[in-house]
């Protein structure tokens, strides 16, 4: 892998903006970053001139089910490589593979397959988005707020089944979605936290008080805020009220203009601030594909005009890519630096890997996205290798 010095018009680290930036990449890692004029091209290195481009860290998606016509629940190398290849084209250089509620045997089979793939993913001979771990979305969710998750497979929170999922994940479990109002949920939250998982409140009919109890026990993340949650009202603020007023809780947002109204997005952004919002795709197998029929786990989904719905007409994930989420949030008035942070540093910090992912800093993986002035992806590097 040749040493490269990338010269861009400006770079967002995203903590700082560097005009006329230089990024030195060696062996897939950022060795140095700063003003280009202060850097020397090492002997034998190549300089990549991108002085008409904006450089940002690669996107980190902590909630995504599939892309390129494949679903992570398939749990095999072919499917997972296709998902990873598709996402890389749109600037997502790492992600957390997200499961759905299903037959327990199918969940364990899928999780086992994903974990096995994670162990060998870097043996691929092409630059692919990296799977950082597994997000267990279900089966410990509310029947009333299940979205498209199959009712017959929703189960009460169980520390025993959580242990089975963690065993199948072989150390790759990262996030647990749970409805905290369910019997047994608090014990499950305690067990998940002790196992090192990020506990996310979601698919929940929790009251404000029930959500606050979960937060007190260590839940520090909220799953696709507004969607599949008890609605907010002035006398029953529910889980949304707890999330909006708890500064130690990060909030996922699907900024596709379909899942959440523009005013509600503005409210979330203003209430939580740039440091506590994480933009996600909640993308399914239809991501990067034309309209048609697709699967979300075992759920039949029809995509029309890029919008995913099941046979009952319920929203079933999205076809959103994170580059589009970036443009949508900037269009709301968010600064580019803050929007980039919500797609990079914030999710990496949630996972505790902010020194390796989600930032352009010395020692971090050289996951880099080049944007044109309209904020469309003009190039992607995954661990220092350009995506073609």
Commentary on this structure:
The protein has about 400 residues and is α/β, with parallel strands linked by helices. The protein has two domains: about 5-55 and about 365-385, Roll (Urease, subunit C, domain 1), CATH 2.30.40; about 60-350, Metal-dependent hydrolases (TIM Barrel). The chain contains ten helices and 20 strands. The strands form four sheets. Strands 5-8-9-10-11-12-13-14 form an eight-stranded parallel β-sheet, sandwiched between helices. A seven-stranded mixed β-sheet has the order 3-2-1-4-18-19-20, with no helix packed on it. A three-stranded antiparallel β-sheet has the order 15-16-17, with no helix packed on it. α2 (about 105-120) runs parallel beside α3 and α5 (about 210-215) packs across α6. The chain is globular and about 65 Å long.
Based on CA atoms alone, the radius of gyration comes out at 20 Å
Which superfamily, in CATH terms, is the homologous superfamily of the largest domain?
Metal-dependent hydrolases
Report strand order across the widest sheet.
Answer: 5-8-9-10-11-12-13-14
Regions with little confidence, pLDDT below 50 for 5+ residues: none
Biggest beta-sheet profile: 8 strands, parallel
The first-level CATH class name of the largest domain: Alpha Beta
Compute the separation of the termini in Å.
16 Å
Summed over residues and divided by their number, the pLDDT gives a mean of: 97
Number of helix segments?
10
Tell me the number of structural domains. 2
Q: In sequence order, what are the helices and strands, one letter per element?
A: EEEEEEEHEHEHEHEHEHEHEEEEHHHEEE
């Amino acid at each position: 892998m040749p040493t490269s010095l990338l010269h861009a018009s400006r770079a967002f680290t995203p903590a700082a903006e560097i005009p006329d930036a230089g990024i030195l990449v060696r062996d897939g890692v950022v060795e140095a970053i700063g003003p280009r004029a202060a850097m020397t091209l090492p002997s034998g290195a190549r300089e990549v001139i991108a002085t008409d481009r904006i450089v940002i860290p690669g996107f980190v998606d902590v909630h995504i089910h599939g892309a390129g016509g494949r679903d992570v629940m398939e749990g095999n190398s072919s499917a997972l490589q296709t998902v990873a290849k598709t996402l890389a084209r749109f600037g997502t250089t790492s992600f957390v593979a997200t499961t759905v509620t299903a037959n327990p045997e199918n969940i364990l089979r899928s999780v086992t397959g994903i974990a096995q793939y994670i162990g060998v993913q870097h043996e691929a001979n092409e630059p692919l988005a990296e799977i950082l771990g597994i997000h267990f979305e279900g089966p410990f969710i509310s029947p009333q707020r299940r979205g498209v998750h199959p009712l017959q497979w929703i189960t009460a929170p169980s520390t025993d089944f959580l242990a089975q999922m963690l065993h199948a994940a072989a150390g790759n479990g990262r996030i647990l979605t749970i409805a905290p109002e369910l019997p047994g949920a608090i014990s499950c939250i305690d067990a998940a936290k002790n196992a090192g998982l990020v506990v996310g409140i979601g698919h929940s009919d929790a009251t404000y008080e029930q959500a606050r109890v979960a937060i007190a026990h260590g839940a520090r993340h909220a799953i696709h805020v507004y969607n599949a949650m008890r609605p907010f009202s002035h006398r029953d603020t529910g889980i949304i009220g707890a999330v909006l007023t708890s500064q130690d809780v990060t909030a996922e947002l699907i900024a596709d203009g379909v899942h959440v109204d523009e005013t509600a997005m503005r409210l979330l952004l203003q209430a939580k601030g740039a440091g506590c919002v994480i933009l996600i795709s909640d993308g399914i197998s239809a991501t990067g594909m034309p309209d048609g029929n697709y699967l979300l786990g075992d759920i039949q989904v029809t995509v029309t005009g890029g919008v995913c719905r099941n046979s009952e007409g319920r929203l079933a994930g999205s076809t959103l890519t994170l580059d589009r989420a970036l443009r949508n949030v900037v269009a709301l008035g968010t600064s580019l630096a803050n929007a980039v942070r919500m797609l990079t540093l914030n999710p990496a910090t949630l996972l505790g890997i902010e020194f390796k992912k989600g930032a352009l800093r010395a020692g971090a993986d050289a996951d880099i996205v080049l944007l044109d002035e309209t904020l469309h992806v003009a190039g992607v590097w995954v661990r220092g290798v350009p995506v073609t």
